[in-house]
Amino acid sequence: MAEVQGGGDSGDVRPELEEDLSEVSDFLKAIGKQIKLLRERAGLTQKEFAKQVGYTESLIGAVEQGKRTPQRELLEASERVLDAGGLLIVTSDDIESAKAKARVRHPEWFRGYAKLEAKARELHCVSLYSIPGLLQTEAHARAVFSMSHPLLSEEVIETRVAARMGRQEILTAWPRAVFGWVIDESVLRRPLGGWEVHEEQLRHLLRLGNSRGMVIQVMPLDRTESAGTGGPFILITPKGRPQMAYIEVQTSSRLITDQEEVRIMNARYSTLRAQAHTPQESLALIEKILGDR
Question: What pTM value is reported for the model?
Answer without folding.
Answer: 0.68
